[in-house]
Design a protein that fits this description.
By secondary structure, this protein is mainly alpha-helical. It is about 75% helix and about 0% strand.
Length: about 80
């Protein structure tokens, strides 16, 4: 393998090269929005999981199936 293959491009022309050279570590360490975004995702995931479990419980699914059945019967 030649040395030129390991050198970064002066200007990354391709999308993959732009992603490879993006200084993500710098932004995560020096900008507040990245940290709060990650903290927000970590805090909200359990809440969304709980809502998902409640919305898709067998009792709730059967309740909404009955509501839809009644609405369909009214329209015919």
């Amino acid at each position: 393998m030649s040395e030129s293959a390991s050198r970064p491009m002066k200007f990354p022309y391709t999308f993959t090269a732009k992603i490879a050279q993006f200084p993500l570590k710098y932004y995560v360490e020096n900008q507040w929005i990245w940290r709060y975004w990650m903290i927000g995702i970590a805090v909200s995931l359990p809440v969304f999981y709980k809502i998902h479990k409640l919305a898709n419980s067998p009792e709730n699914v059967s309740k909404w199936a009955e509501i839809r059945r009644k609405e369909a019967a009214e329209h015919h």
